[in-house]
Design a protein that fits this description.
- This protein is about 50% helix and about 0% strand.
- The protein contains 2 helices and no strands.
- The radius of gyration is 13 Å and the shape is elongated.
- The N and C termini lie far apart (about 30 Å).
Length: about 55
């Protein structure tokens, strides 16, 4: 049985943000921005920020 977060989903996204590979992190940041653009237009309660770098 494999250990670690399951493939896909939030675990994979968080893993990408904490990756030491700058290319992986850059793609994760771009995916985060793309995802924010696709959210329905609503009055945000607060600004959504990606996780801080480790």
């Amino acid at each position: 049985m494999a250990s670690g977060p399951p493939a896909g989903g939030i675990g994979e996204l968080l893993g990408a943000f904490t990756s030491p590979d700058n290319g992986v992190r850059r793609r994760a940041e771009q995916a985060w921005e793309d995802m924010k653009m696709r959210l329905p237009d609503q009055e945000p309660q607060e600004e959504v920020q990606p996780p801080p770098p480790m």
